[in-house]
Amino acid sequence: MEFLLGGASSMCAVLFTNPLDVLKTRQQLEGELIAKQNLTKRSYRGIRQSFLTVVRTDGLRGLQKGLPAALLFQFSMNSIRLGTYQTVDNLGWTKCANHPSLTPLLSVFWGGCAGLVSATASCPFYVVKIQLQADTSGSYTARFQHHHSGTVSAFVNIYRQSGVRGLFRGYPASVARLVVGSAAEMASFSVCKQFFLRYQVFQESIVLTALASSTVAGFFTSVLMSPCDVVTTRMTNQAVSANGKGLLYTNIFDCFLKIYRSEGIHGYYKGFVPMYLRVAPHTMLNLTFWEFFKGLHEQWRI
Q: How far is CA 158 from each of CA 239, 244, 255, rounded to the nearest angstrom?
């Protein structure tokens, strides 16, 4: 049940946050491997311009590009991630009664482990989601677009071109992204939840506690995960050769190095604003729905 509740909560959250994910993907791919001073024309500068560009080129429906794949990704990723973490927490492995100072480290460790497992299960859906979100009918500065007609078509095209390996393109970067993000999110959420529950107003409201705790967790997640997120997007969307090998990046280290040499530190934080505006409310909605669903489950079980 823990796995089902985790997946259901994330699917509810992504319905609200997918448009920001589209803006983030477009910003991360704009000016790929081009120095900032040489990027004279930008279609996705800032939230407002990015929003208007998407609406002008793809209509309002463009803000929900890749939504079916995003729903599948969130369910496969968070059902395992949150379910695994909740199971471990129920077993008492995230706390150390004899040494309370070790509790945050245990939360980081098990959050990272949960992220590792979930990255493996959700990677194919993430690949499809990114490629669909990057595609546009208007002029676009990304180096490559895959032009899939839909979610099913994307899975078929990727498999025909590169086999199963194509569905796990950028897997090491995806693992790094989710391990860092999950460790930061779950650890900070757990610590903040314990802190807020010291106060009466939070003890009386599960939703208020989840909202406050997940707001802080979203901030730490955004700051720490952004470099890995950019690298994952770049590796996932890059063009490939006839034998399925990436034409821009050979591996995660090559991608990190090329971004730094071409775009500097700034390149690792492209799309940071829409990412934060997405991650913070997504974390807030996801963990709030999670706490709410767990509360309902406890009531019904009783």
A: 11, 9, 21
For 89, half-sphere exposure in the C-beta direction (CA atoms, 13 angstrom radius) is: 16
In total, how many domains does the chain have?
1
Segment holding 280, helix H or strand E:
helix 272-301
Instruction: Give the CATH number for residue 130.
Output: 1.50.40.10
Q: How far apart are CA 87 and CA 73, in angstroms?
A: 21
Q: Give 144-169 pLDDT, tens digit per residue.
A: 888 898 999 999 999 998 889 899 99
Residue type present at position 142: A
Return the structure tokens found at 64.
């929900």
224, 218 Cβ separation under 8 angstroms: no
Tokens of 29: 């791919």
* Chain segment 50-92, per-residue pLDDT in tens: 999 999 999 999 999 999 999 999 888 877 877 777 788 777 8
Percent helix / strand / coil, the chain, rounded to 5: 75, 0, 25
Which residue is associated with the tokens 């990057």?
134
Tell me how far apart the alpha carbons of residues 117 and 64 are, in angstroms, rounded to a whole number: 27
Domain that holds residue 219: 1-300
Alpha carbon 45 to its chain's center:
21
Residue whose structure tokens are 């314990």: 194
| pTM for the full predicted model | 0.80
